[in-house]
Amino acid sequence: MAKQPKQMSISEFQDMIIERINNPENSIYIKVKSKAIERTEYLESIREEGREYGLTDEELDDVVLLVDKTLWGFGILDYLINDDDTISDIRLVNKDTVRVKRRGKRMDANIHFISDDEYKKYIQFITGRNSVNMSISNAAQVFTDKDSSPTNILRFSLVSDLLNTNDSPTLLIRKIPKKKKTFDELMRDNYLTEAQRKYLVDRWRSGKSILVCGPNGSGKTTFINAVLESTNPEKSCVVIQESEELYCNSHPEMIFRKILPAKGNSSFYYDLKALGTLALMESFDTIVVGEIKGKEAASLAYAAYTGSQFMTSVHSINAKEGVEKIIDYALDDQPNRDRKHFSKQFQTLDTVIYVQDYHISQILHMKKYNDKTGEYEFEDVTFKDGSDEPIFKEVS
């Protein structure tokens, strides 16, 4: 007579299954990602095993749901990632603190991990699923997951406990909807007005260049993704980005590229600057750089001065300072140049937008660069209620 397995409580059985999943020797996350494990069959095998340990069908429904969300979802964070489209950022600080940014406002997520060990195992779950190695040389890294969520592209910024003083890793999850928000949806969210939409789309479609400024997580990428759909189809376009956040399915000649960072001891890499230089050699009509963070600003300046249309974003405290910041970045790459050199090149930057708290709070029109004063002359663009006609007011 076959020996019957001992009886288990639901918590004992659940712990056994999760421990098995988290054991790297079993490579279960890798098998799931490579589709070597079939979802329905695996979950049914868990159910059958649970019956052998005396669990009821109702108890097994709970266990199978947990395993399903662990392997094909995001466990304790699954709802925040897959079902709540008002959330753009999720930050794991420690076992007791999970914060979210909802429509530009930061708040507590009311989610807690049982222990430090469970919290660290969840981080390991994310790294295991994405084949990320958290060694000393990779103590801080950014990686993208395009496949695990049916609704969002996920960008992870992970810092290990080697760098954090509380001996705990931290993880920021940025959600980029796979179905981008249209301008109609953004107007319903009070992101912008109909007059602003018409003005900005007309500017972009007619070949004007745009700089999108704002704090971190304010909604800059949201605007770029929306306006990409209005790119002139008769122009060739390249989109260069660090993480795969920007996309467009409507343009016949829009190419998307991402950086290739150096790994380990390799000196082989393509950064934003290298990809920007490559774009100049390929004679694209329109160049989009997801975000300016450094020396790639110099390549963008040369693109601007050769007549290419361009769009990018930068972190800044206001619209005017956004222009100054990309000049600073360009000077970092070429300190032998003076500010006037890059200021003249960026004078083709026709439109500057400032986004704050998921709302376009200011639009500036650049009139010209004044050689005598060494300053740009800007006009503030506003609209009368109920009118699409812009009102231009000189900015001092």
From TrEMBL:
<protein>
    <submittedName>
        <fullName>CpaF family protein</fullName>
    </submittedName>
</protein>
<comment type="similarity">
    <text>Belongs to the GSP E family.</text>
</comment>
<dbReference type="InterPro" id="IPR050921">
    <property type="entry name" value="T4SS_GSP_E_ATPase"/>
</dbReference>
<dbReference type="Pfam" id="PF00437">
    <property type="entry name" value="T2SSE"/>
</dbReference>
<dbReference type="InterPro" id="IPR001482">
    <property type="entry name" value="T2SS/T4SS_dom"/>
</dbReference>
<dbReference type="InterPro" id="IPR027417">
    <property type="entry name" value="P-loop_NTPase"/>
</dbReference>
<dbReference type="GO" id="GO:0016887">
    <property type="term" value="F:ATP hydrolysis activity"/>
</dbReference>
<feature type="domain" description="Bacterial type II secretion system protein E">
    <location>
        <begin position="166"/>
        <end position="328"/>
    </location>
</feature>
